[in-house]
């Protein structure tokens, strides 16, 4: 690896060390359904987002609530202090598709219809609001 690439890689790693995130992989629901819930909490303060997720009717909301609690705990562990109300916000959340399970359903006249069982990966990053103002 060249010197320029190594320096760039080290800079990216240093930036990642200061960021608290949580990942959830291979969730057996479609990415489209998960994105509907993820869009509700993007950019919100974390305790407000927890309230939104707790009272949402969607099944994906329960999974995202657990993921958000994990990201908050990761931030608290990295910064060695408790998250206070109004201090943290969901800076980034994105949903990517995971590998699809392809199944066949019997159909009339000897045919088979393909069923695609979709899955997704979610990455959630929390950050302090003080850092948001510095950018």
Provide a concise account of the structure shown.
The protein has 135 residues and is α+β, with helices and mostly antiparallel strands. The protein has 5 helices and 5 strands; from the N terminus they run H-E-H-H-H-E-E-E-E-H.
Q: What characteristic shape results from the CA principal axes?
A: flat
**Fraction of residues in helices?**
40-55%
Average pLDDT number: 92
The total of beta strands comes to 5
Structural overview:
- The strands form 2 sheets. A 3-stranded antiparallel β-sheet has the order 1-5-2. A two-stranded antiparallel sheet has the order 3-4.
- The protein is flat and about 65 Å long.
- The mean pLDDT is 92.
- It has a single domain (20-134), classed as Ribosomal protein L22/L17 (Ribosomal Protein L22, Chain A).
- It has 135 residues and is an alpha+beta fold.
- 20% of the residues are buried.
- It is built from 5 helices and 5 strands; from the N terminus they run αβαααββββα.
What characteristics describe this protein?
135 residues, Ribosomal Protein L22, Chain A
Write the layout of secondary structure elements.
Elements: H1 3-17, E1 20-27, H2 31-41, H3 46-54, H4 59-79, E2 88-97, E3 101-106, E4 112-117, E5 120-128, H5 129-134
Antiparallel strand pairs: 1-5, 2-5, 3-4
């Amino acid at each position: 690896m060249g010197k320029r690439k190594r320096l760039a890689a080290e800079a990216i790693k240093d930036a990642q060390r200061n960021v608290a995130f949580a990942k959830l992989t291979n969730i057996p629901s479609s990415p489209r359904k998960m994105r509907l819930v993820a869009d509700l909490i993007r950019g919100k303060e974390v305790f407000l987002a927890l309230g939104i997720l707790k009272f949402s009717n969607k099944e994906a909301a329960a999974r995202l609530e657990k993921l958000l609690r994990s990201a908050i705990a990761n931030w608290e562990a990295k910064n060695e202090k408790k998250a206070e109300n109004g201090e943290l916000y969901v800076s980034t959340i994105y949903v990517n598709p995971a590998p699809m399970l392809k199944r066949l359903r019997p159909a009339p006249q000897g045919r088979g219809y393909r069923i695609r069982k979709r899955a997704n990966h979610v990455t959630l990053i929390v950050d302090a609001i003080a850092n948001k103002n510095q950018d």
